[in-house]
Amino acid sequence: MFAIIGIVLAASLSVIALAHLLPVLVAVSTGNNEQAIVFAMTGLLTAFIAGALGFATGGQKHRPVVAERLTALSIVWLIVPGFAAIAFVGVDPKALYVDAYFDAVSALTTTGSVSLINEMSSAPAVMIWRATLQWIGGYATLLMSMLVLAQLGLAGLSLRRAPIPPGDTSGPFGRYWPAMLALGLVYGSVTLAGVIGLLVGGMALVPAIGLAFSAAATGGLMPNGGTLVASVSVFSGIVVATLLLLGATNYLRHAGLVRRSPRTYWGDPEFRYMVLGITVGGIVLAGLVAITSGASLPLINAIMWVLSLLSTSAFAVDEAGFGSIPLLVALTVVFVGGSTMSTAGGLKLMRIAILMKQGSREIARLSHPHGIVHTDFGGRSFTMPLMRGVWTMFVLMLVFALLAALALTVLGVPFEHAITASIGALTNAGPVLGFATGGDGLPIGIGTSEVYASMPATAKLVLSLAMVAGRVELLAFVGVVTAFTTQDS
């Protein structure tokens, strides 16, 4: 058990250590040598610890069982942010480590919540560090979904499972290397294309890198903290929308890990549901806003809002959207989420579709109790055990959101903020808190950082746990907790 945790942790920390180079370069280029030294030193410290772990666990040939894989994943998602947070404290010595840890967990899980809001924490190097962590977290999410969770068939993921290309079978994860490289190439290519597109759209290099990193990972980080409409050109907005759509789409369609041609994207039910949901949802949302509030939400902005929420990036499209879109609508959309095997959070479109198909089957059986009703998803039939797994996942999401909200309320967080922040953390869509009402009776909008910063330290730890639970899939997280609590019984 400890060997596999050490191996995965050493590899993860090595990536984090190497990632410090980008904020070092940005700090030097902006003349902030003190921050460059901080990032360089924290990177070296992380690299040293990664090397020590790698040396201690090197040569291990043990093939991990299911419980060991899930445990390693959960522990790594909790420990790695602790090292990524060191740079935040180094840049701003007045910052509390709890706040830094919260921000690091939020970045690596692509949740997008921020609690450190002073001038030093808003420097270009710090912004690029957040964006880099989000990008790494997006890639880690794809690897975890495709190479671990899908292979276990967790809560319906067996319907989306694809064969892993053969590779070296030595070591704990040797056979995964070809798939990891193929996926990394596509993920990196999508991000690079996004950076180039944003540069063409008129953005400066550092903000373009930050926005492309965040959008590709569906992380919701705006480099300047504003809205998309106010901050970027129309062309850059199209680039961001494309990155969000690609990020929320099943990456098996991009990576060539299954035999597909571009025109068969439409053959993927989740992709069809997503495109239709964004288009029709945008039209309905614009009409709903006009009818209920009398306000005017431009159709293109409404469509972009639906894409932003469905991808769980929760990018702030415009200020008007926060006051026009009902909180319940925003929470429902992020709860649904994007496609399986994507960087998006939420329950996932596939599971929602399966729940609806099962409901339709039960209604059909009312008139024909003994009839055989065939149900499938994407041409693949699903069984009752699979159906029970999906229902379990759905119920766990609701229960965990309510428990987290209750915990936050007990800790002094207003109930509306508590339930919104809990769902936002669990679906990895932190900026959705902007739709909740602030102390002045108006929507919080883009000022969510102040609200997160004002929460007690314990509340931030609760939200951090919810972010990790949502990212590693609740069934896997509960399975790990159950294994730890029952291993001695």
UniProtKB/TrEMBL annotation:
Biological process terms in GO annotation: metal ion transport
Entries under PANTHER family matching the protein: TRK SYSTEM POTASSIUM UPTAKE PROTEIN TRKG-RELATED (PTHR32024:SF2)
Cytoplasm keyword on record: no
GO CC terms of this entry: plasma membrane
Secretion signal span: none
Family to which the UniProt record says this protein belongs: Belongs to the TrkH potassium transport family.
Identification of the protein by name: Potassium uptake protein TrkH
Pfam families for the chain: TrkH
Keywords: Cell membrane, Ion transport, Membrane, Transmembrane, Transmembrane helix, Transport
